[in-house]
Amino acid sequence: MAKEKRQALPARHELKYFINAAEVQALRMRLFPVMEMDSHCKNGPYAIRSLYFDDIYDTAWYEKESGVMNRDKYRIRIYRYSDAEIFLERKRKMGDLIQKSSTRISRKLCDQLVRGSCNKLDLVDNALLNDLFREMRVSLLRPKVIVDYTRETFIHPVENVRVTLDKNLRTGLLSRNLFSPDVMTVSPLDDGREILEVKYDSYLPDFISAMLWDVPAERSAISKYVLCRRFEPLG
Fold first, then answer.
1. Are the beta carbons of 229 and 145 closer than 8 angstroms?
2. 128: exposed, middle or buried (C-beta count within 10 Å: 0-12, 13-18, 19+)?
């Protein structure tokens, strides 16, 4: 039913910023000589689509808005609207650290989850799917909103640094049609801001920090999920 992959990644630091389009281009020029492009970016920025889950009480939404320090969020993630690689992911916030668990799933299982069915997930040898079964059965976890954006990723091996530029954030209006590039979407941001994310293991190397310190970007506890629920009813 599912092929396990990237199951238990270590906890990492994750800093998020709002940044305007002009500063994105200036930052790219700084990063190119020092960092490599992620393999997904060999042909340019790539489309990411996620379908986020929440429970009957919209706990993930309310916990984020309330600043709860320890919380979980489940999503299905695909790339370039394709079913070639489909991942179920859980993003776990633990104080100032983020841990992501991920497992590759089949299109058949993906379609089942999109329908809101957890049938037989308790029988598979996969801890993440077992946890999802429990949440879907006990808390009535269900798909809530599609989140789209285009990502460009710069990487460096020291401290496993990833700097991502996420552009054109869009939300799917009441759609669960995960693989259609023609889903009607709108931007939840009114001012054209983009999102900068900086991720690393234990510390951010000085030479990368120096490239970022004077970038006119507004650090914020950004949640793409919360932003994209803007047009969707809670409950």
1. yes
2. buried
